[in-house]
Amino acid sequence: MNLLEKLSIEKSVPGRRGVRFAQPAQPAAAWLPETALRKTPPRLPEMSEFDVVRHYTRLSRLNYCLDTHLYPLGSCTMKYNPRANEEIAALDGFAATHPGAPDAAAQGTLEVLWRLERMLCALTGLAAFTLQPAAGAHGEFTGILIAAAYHRSRRDRRRTEILVADSSHGTNPASAVLGGFAVKTVASRPDGRLDLDALKTALGPQTAMVMLTVPNTLGLFERQIREIADAAHAAGALLYMDGANFNALMGLAKPADFGVDILHLNLHKSFSTPHGGGGPGSGPVGVTAALEKFLPVPRVAEKNGRFTLRTKIRGSIGRMRSWAGNVGVALKAYAYLRAHDAATLRSIAENAILNANYVRAQLRDLFPPAVDEPCLHECVLRTEPEKLNGIKTLDVAKRLLDAGFYAPTIYFPLIVHEALMVEPTETESKETLDAFVAALRAIHAEALADPDRVRAAPHELPVRRLDELAAARNPNVAW
Amino acid sequence: MYSPHTAADREAMLRAIGAASLNELVAQIPADLRADGFDWPTALAAPELLAHARALAAKNRPLACFAGGGARDRFVPAAVKALTQRGEFLTAYTPYQAEASQGTLQAIYEFQSSVCALYGMDAANASLYDGATALAEAVGAAARIAGRKKILLPESLHPEWRVVLATYFAAKGEPTLETVPCPTGRLEPDELARRLDETVAAVVVATPNFFGLLEDGAGIAALAHAHGALVVAVADPVSLGLLEAPGVWGADFAVGEGQGLGNALNYGGPYLGLFACKKAHVRHVPGRICGMTADADGKRGFVLTLQAREQHIRRERAASNVCSNEALCALAATIHLALLGPAGLREVAELSVDKAHRLAAKLGAVPGFRLRFAGPFFDEFALECPVPAERVRNALLKDGILAGIPLGGYDPAWKNVLLVGATEQRTDEEIDRYAAALGRLAR
To answer: Which residues of chain A lie closer than 8 angstroms to B206, CB-CB?
Structure first.
């Protein structure tokens, strides 16, 4: 068969073993009823340790990753993942502690969680945080349940609707619906900001919350954020901030000052923890003092330098998952923050903003920005197929892979036609950005001269363009 | 701190942008919304940061771990750690650009296949946050498929998981959850039958259950199906090295906590939600799914598939909001299972069962202590203590033993119950030390 690398099961040889254990004193049949035992062993690969190491090392080499390639995925903040953080999170004292250990045996971990919560409070100006949500979308859902609990506590049963911007992440409306709310979408103005008048029209006694991404997904600051907050509050609604783009605000601004009631942050974005090919993430949720009692349990408390985990709190929405959260991820974020002082924190956002504008300034003649003004941490550019022999954003993205760059986020936000959403982050050097700009300019030229070459990209990768339609039509998801 | 820019770089870049200064760019955020200061500790240089972290880690106490409850101290081969720390896996994003992500994608396909093999299912996803959230997603999917609203949850399901489900569905008000009492520690057919009717969308059954006991999965599945309800199984994947697969005994969905496959305890996370189902339900699976396909030359390759289910396409019409999952933990599990193979996984399961049973015999022989429930158990058991279990747990800390999880915090009726487990990691010396310490306590 024509393939890149055999599956592990295709390399399996009956009788091979990668790891052996001691024999039990008595076999399972001595303890368990025969009827409970499986009749056939699970179809797992049988490989030597070396087979396994070689197999997964070979697979790893088929990936682009941040360590090898610029990864300018907008709204994903693919910044360098410091290895010191990995070393710290893997320390045995942290990694080997069972979540059911009594507080007295887990003081080190509890102290880190408490300190990290305090640091996130300092950064955002909010009163309290939970580290329990395992991802950004999980954090959004947590925030929505908090909003529901808040309105219920006021016996205000009319609040059935959540307003989201048309530029929002798809998780915002999806999370709102999971919380039992109807979703109404509010339009953005041509300058990419939420239309305040449209918002005011949409707000009413039925509005539970307004969800807004700041900076928004166009990389622009919502300059009327205070007015938005005031309008929401005047209507009795809460303001939720999707903090996926917090990298632009790090050390520069505190969302509490904007009038935000609830927000989530992504430790796997702004706080440098690695994304691992799709997770684990961590989506801490911060709230104002008025909403603190609704936070999920468990919560870390401190008294006289002793730390405890509180599981029973009146008013809490409950538990969003088992145990305290993605502690291993929190440890990395804590290490990241402790490596900075207030001034270097600010330089994170400043350099992220500088890099995004540098890319934008040098591409705006060929790939026009969705809104042509300076941006914050990311810029949204457009491909113009009508001027490029029909070459679309997808083609440009695939050709970028050939040039040795991961592709930007594409076709998002949905309000921008043929969007290329570029977020370089602060950890990329000028040389890398120059090379990226040169690659995109070369693709533009190639689209004019040899569009078929671009349309058939990628050419240099382990596989050519893959048939996604066939995969969805007849799903083959397991051997 | 991690930005490479020199002053000269910054100057050149500002010039290219046409901005006079960084402040000019930052001024997009109105001055009155910018912070004038942060209450922030001084930065730690690299050596001091590591020393600080080591000092904190040392405040946790190393203990011989006899606690379980969905978090297990299992052996993790060195190759798992080495391979998952490779930057190519560690620092990649969700594989949106399939052509540049074949390594991650093939590994996800192998993960899904391994999960299907363990659970006897046809389809699995790329992972969810943990076992509890995987169950919440499965229960939600089952209710949508059945077109019914009620879910029956046995008391023998992890109490924290029951709270997670209640939290997930409280605001929306559906599906509704009804707890089935389990005075014998198991889901009894009579108790279940009494509650089954045409409003029940699904029955959840955990085996081994929260108390370590084996449930009659086949009997429960037959009963549920007779009433048109779906069956959602919860099972520890390690137990499936030995026990019959849920898909074989009749479950429609199966979920589990996958931490024990190659992932550290980490005080509760990141863990690994396993989710699998029968083929008929594949379009109701939440989260990312990897599928096999071919490229323009007919060469085999892998892509994220069935994306029309997902939030980034469907927005408010999506059935789930899941985006990030626990990919690196799933990779660890995949590598772990490839290293162990069916024989190694069976050995781990048998060792755990054997050690748990020898431990149970010793602890149950200590005056005043006994096993709370009768019936076959896997590698955990409920120990009834003559005093509050929390006191027992605290007393044994000085012997270097984490004796188990006291259950009184979950239910006052379980105040004297300690949930105890053993894995392949526990030595005979530790088992004897535990029994001796309990014996001293009893005197």
So the answer is: none
